[in-house]
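Lay summary. Proteins are chains of building blocks that fold into shapes, and those shapes determine what they do. In this project we predict the shape from the chain. Here is one chain we studied, written as its sequence of building blocks.
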Amino acid sequence: MVDQAKQLRDKVLKQKFKKDRRQTRILAVTSGKGGVGKSNFALNFALSLVAQNKKVLIFDVDLGFANIDVLLGRSPEESIASMLEKGLSIWDIIEEGPNGLLFISGGTGFNDLFQMDESKLNKFFEELSQIQGLVDYIILDTGAGLSYENLRFILAADDVVLVTTPEPTSITDAYSVVKMVHSRDQNVHMKLVVNQCTSDKEGVQTAENFKKVTEQFLSKQIGTLGFIPNDPNVPAAVKKQIPFTLAYPGTQATRAMQKLAGEFLELPVPYKLGIKGFLLKMLFK
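And here is the predicted shape, written in a compact code that computers can read:
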């Protein structure tokens, strides 16, 4: 374990680039309800960014229901929970996935993050801070809904991607997330992704209707990041435990994800708090 952790740390450190360290950006992926493909989106979005030469770490913070490792067909020996319980370093729990994607499993024992004693909380912050400048993006796969923990992650992130489907219940629950977040911080940068669309027209119409409601009732503008079609290859890839962008590279869903990731990289970046800023916001939100 020690040798493996050292090898991974040395490999990542070598990639921090000759002149400048990376400007790490924190992106939270969330949804109003389960079953909308949030984790699958987060994983394949991360891989699509990797395909565009970005260094990415995906951090499964769906407390109690972590499943990024399941989607990857992996069974990590360690997690954030075991790091805190055993006194491990962050390098002991980072796993290397396909194409150099890094990931951290939250673990089912990670439920009490915000109820930790001071020493464990300090340990969590100290270890996570070591990643600053070593990756371009940390993608947080948060839980669905409006739990206290999810809200803290969302409010502390640099950017938020809200995943919904065209189903009315999914849209209603997504709106509830926007309403709650907006009530706490009107400056949160949120982008909408409409998943499982039967057509481009349905995706556009869903996004437009959603934007109208948030503007009318919250005076909040929500931009649209993109649409993912309802592609039968997506559930097929889940069964194989292989990300669909890798299992089926030429399909509609994969092309849509690649386009979406490219458009994300073109977005203006008003600010980056980095990991330390993220951790400070988590403490005080």
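What the prediction tells us: The chain has 13 helices and eight strands.
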